[in-house]
Amino acid sequence: MLQPAELSLEEMGDLADVIPAADPEVKLTYRPIPEFGQAPRRSLIPVCEPTLGGNEMKYVQQAIETNWISSAGRFIRDFEARFAELCGVQYGIACANGTVAMHLAMATLGLEAGDEVIIPTFTMIATANAVTYCGAKPVLVDMEPDYWQMDLNQVEAKITPRTKAIVPVHIYGHPTDMDALMALAEKHGLMVIEDAAEAHGAEYKGRRTGGLGHAAGFSFYGNKIITTGEGGMVTTNDRTLAQLAWNLRDHAFSHERHFWHKFVGFNYRMTNLQAAVGLAQVEQLDGFVAARRRNAAEYNCRLYGIPGIRTPAEAPWAKNVYWMYGIMVDETEYGMSRDALRRVLADHGIETRTFFIPMHCQPVYWQQFKGERYPVAENLCKRGFYLPSASSLSLDEIEYVAGVIRKAAQP
Question: Is 370 designated active site?
Fold first, then answer.
């Protein structure tokens, strides 16, 4: 029977200080909503929620009416083609979720035991897990402090003869410095697979994420900028990689005859119903990105000047899509810890999430990375959290959230 990896805070030593407190219970509150008049209504502002205001119902109905509800149908083809086009690449391979998109992209490289893949320690655990699924070893680097992306200076220092790939993660919707990374990868003959799960529509020097490396993996989970409920996509310009990914996605059925398999494949297919929702979402992507960027601008304005609150930065070469709008709290300057502020926000009906817990602090990877330290990632984990960030967020809700943060800091 599989047993969990146990890790107590005592075992972690001073790293225990990095681990966030449990999520506070978000209370339902009554507050006035101007656009509904001044009558208070019961409300909770979720940290994120999907926006389904386009052709989602229409396309799903068409899929049902034509009986194409499984892993074949026009919406899968159309969704793949449209999303690939938006990323500036030739091929899109739709699959079951973002984690398997990353695994599928890595599996096409033939990774095996003993191979190494460099990833940032500050990421969602799916990035490390996808490497582990291949039998390879994740190798960690810290983040740079300005934009919270992987520290490229550390990347080169971690390259060994066993290194096969580098995985930049476009954290919270801000792209990594890809020109420098691609030059480094070319110098050492390495593949680059973007983890673009959080970066739909983000741009690096005018080029969209998903088309900056050799391949990329996207997530369409319910909290992503565009969603299919669950779902993912591999994007690439490499025809050979794309054809292999399509084959592996569907049990690696042979073109020679049915039930004839030359690879150990996967059941990573997306359904036509999910793709129908995805196609409708892609049609709205530019509007969703504009809304996220508007939300960030409004938050920046309203949080400006609050001592101890650091808002996210945007590099001059980047277009950040602010999948999640994250802030950092300096307890000394603000007068309250990050976790204490989250409790105040929860008491006002505002849901939040802490930043990612780094891979070297995870129970399941503790023994593998024991003794490694990554101070920037640790600081992000200790002080960072994100505020409600949905594309549908109203200006009144942003004002309300920012007002609670400003008031909480006052003596």
Answer: no
